[in-house]
């Protein structure tokens, strides 16, 4: 028992010794860690102080720089204000000097005016005295004249007035004749000016229609289908459209021949549909031609409506609109009738506006002036008279009816727009390129071009090519240098421009070439 108690006491003592030793060791570690923490804290404090010192120095440097910048800006503002103040003072001084000078001038003028006024007053008094004396002398002179001539003053006045009237009348007649001659000259100049301005402000396309239309095919095999067995298909097409079909050796093409462009267009569209469909036989041909004719009638109405809308013409009868649309498929001397009528309408509108007349009325008359060329039925009347009859039938104004009928002098002109329509019709039809040239005129122009070029020294040969739109001039290299070639090209072009009338433009090309040829034997 005593041994166990002793053992227990020894164990407790050992435990106490272990606890005390652990506490001592823990105290030492804690003290060491505390010392390390103090050291780290002191290091952080020193680093913070260094950073704070650096930041303070940077802020001080930035503040100094900002202060220097603000000081410089302030000095510039002060200098600018001082400069403006000096300029204002100088302007004020100049104004003050100017005002002083004007004041002195006014004072001098006032003094001079007073002097002049006094002088005028004295002269007025002298004139009044002289006038009274003159009136007395005139009365005395009149009494003497009455005694000498045996006439009273009233009779002498009447004779003098009569003589002056006759003299003034003769002078007025001469002056009137001069005014009339001057007015004629000015009227001619003004008329030319108005016509030139109207032409310059109107730009129209020159469309030339032919008597034939070439219908292109994908291959020559389709020609047999179009001709048909024993030619019945081609006969059916010709009978339905009134157009001659020429099927020859021309590759991949058929020629449609007819003087009526409307029929040619119906035939072309019908052929196009038949070839696309592939079913070509007489019954189908008649059906397609009839359908194409109806659709073309609708297209004609659309063309007419679009034309009158573009020209700003309102209230036109539907039948006249249809006739205007039919003009698209009619040509006159190679000039498309619708393009010609549109051009005449624009020219009439411009010319009427220049003359102070109604441009809308003039445009309307210009568009309708050739409606007699596309009648639905043949007539023995000329196209001008027939057009006037149609315009009157569909309710157009008398001025338009007269302008249509009188544009070829087949009716008496009764309104101002009639000569305007006639003049614009002549301008549109006579300008170069508007109408097709006949072969003789074309050949004559080609020959004239070549002759003109060959008239220059050093020209060896001259050829007009590309239907007269280009002139090739070959010169002798020994007689014409390169520099002279440029000059020669310019001179020929200027001479053509001044002396000839031609459509479009002509390109002049001068060719200079030197060849050295030897033969080795």
Characterise this structure.
This protein is mainly alpha-helical and 521 residues long. The chain contains 14 helices and eight strands. Strands 1-3-2 form a three-stranded antiparallel beta sheet, with helices on one face. A three-stranded mixed beta sheet has the order 6-7-8, with helices on one face. Strand 6 (459-465) and strand 7 form a beta hairpin. The radius of gyration is 55 Å and the shape is flat. Mean pLDDT is 80; it is low at 203-209.
**What's the N-to-C terminus distance?**
160 Å
Strand arrangement, major sheet: 1-3-2
What spatial form do the alpha-carbon principal axes imply? Answer: flat
Overall pLDDT: 80
- Please give the number of β-strands: 8
C-alpha Rg, in Å? 55 Å
Q: Helical stretch count?
A: 14
Poorly predicted segments: 203-209
Strand content bin:
5-15%
Notable features of this structure?
single chain; 521 residues; mainly alpha; three-stranded antiparallel sheet; three-stranded mixed sheet; 14 helices; 70% helix
Précis, in short:
The chain is built from 14 helices and eight strands.
Task: Give the SSE layout.
Blueprint (H helix, E strand, L loop, with lengths): L1 H148 L3 H48 L11 E5 L4 H7 L4 H10 L2 E3 L6 E5 L3 H17 L4 H30 L6 H9 L4 E2 L2 E2 H18 L4 H10 L14 H11 L4 H9 L10 H14 L8 H16 L4 E7 L4 E7 L5 H18 L7 E7 L8
Parallel strand pairs: 7-8
Antiparallel strand pairs: 1-3, 2-3, 4-5, 6-7
Helix pairs in contact: 2-8, 4-6, 5-6, 6-7, 8-9, 8-12, 9-11, 9-12, 10-11, 11-12
